[in-house]
Amino acid sequence: MNILDKIVIDKRKEVALKKSIIPISQLENSVLFDRPTVSLAQALRNSSSGIIAEHKRRSPSKAVINQNSSVSEVAVGYEHAGVCGMSVLTDGKYFGGSLDDLLLARASVQLPLLRKEFIIDEYQIIEAKAYGADVILLIAAILSREEIKAYSELAKQLQLDVLLEVHNEEELYKSIMPSIDMLGVNNRNLKTFELSLETSKTLSRLIPNDFVRVSESGISNIAAIKELQPYGYQGFLIGENFMKTDAPGQSATDFINKLK
Ligand SMILES: O=P(O)(O)OC[C@@H](O)[C@@H](O)c1c[nH]c2ccccc12
Known about the structure:
The chain has helices at residues 3-21, 24-28, 40-45, 71-81, 99-108, 122-130, 145-157, 169-175, 198-204, 222-228, 240-243, 248-259, and strands at 51-55, 58-59, 63-64, 85-89, 113-116, 135-139, 161-166, 182-186, 212-216, 233-238. By secondary structure, it is α/β, with parallel strands linked by helices. It has a single domain (3-259), classed as Aldolase class I (TIM Barrel), CATH 3.20.20.70. Strand 9 (212-216), helix 10 and strand 10 (233-238) form a beta-alpha-beta unit. The site of indole-3-glycerol phosphate has 15 residues, from strand 10 and helix 11. Its EC number is 4.1.1.48. GO terms for molecular function: indole-3-glycerol-phosphate synthase activity; phosphoribosylanthranilate isomerase activity.
């Protein structure tokens, strides 16, 4: 069994438990549920840098990155740096994140916030809205075409943007539909952790022009961005490169200044 299979098995148990404790009606009654959202896709279209900065304490591929980071401080630092959006890992077991992290980020910044989660149930999309997210991630490797369609349509109803993540041609073909706003190509294979920017380059020619293109993972310098821009990428999701430093916000500032 690969790591992604393990994560999904645990996630199904987690969601089943949560559903038995907090009913959907309670999520829908939360204060943030009616908050007007901000579009990340729009922010990326209007930006020249296109940086989406992630809050990530640890990961199965890298162990500890920044175990004790303060999500509020990081969020404020990222906003100050001029990023287009922030990604907040909410998985606890494998990434050390939580929905409280999302709430804290929401309380600290106006930026579009992406709930970075392994979504396998509609409940998690309603939860994302209730905890202040503007965008959800859907991972094609763990979803059928029917699920992608149902989940992305629900997200649109809730005014959430959808970032659909793919890693190969097959995943890309099954995911192309109008309810997707952004197509993310993950340079990291979630099953083997193998990393290569070539993935973004080879898949780019298969992505229809109306989707905002986001390249995800393994981006650690300006050269990588310059290399990917000619392939039509307008968004760049960066986690570890910022989070491994003592001041993620400052490293995002330095990075964006170099891009200008
Ligand atoms: O830390 P990196 O290599 O910059 O990667 C960030 C982000 O792309 C990565 O965390 C990620 C991309 N897709 C995911 C899906 C689930 C969990 C994590 C991810």
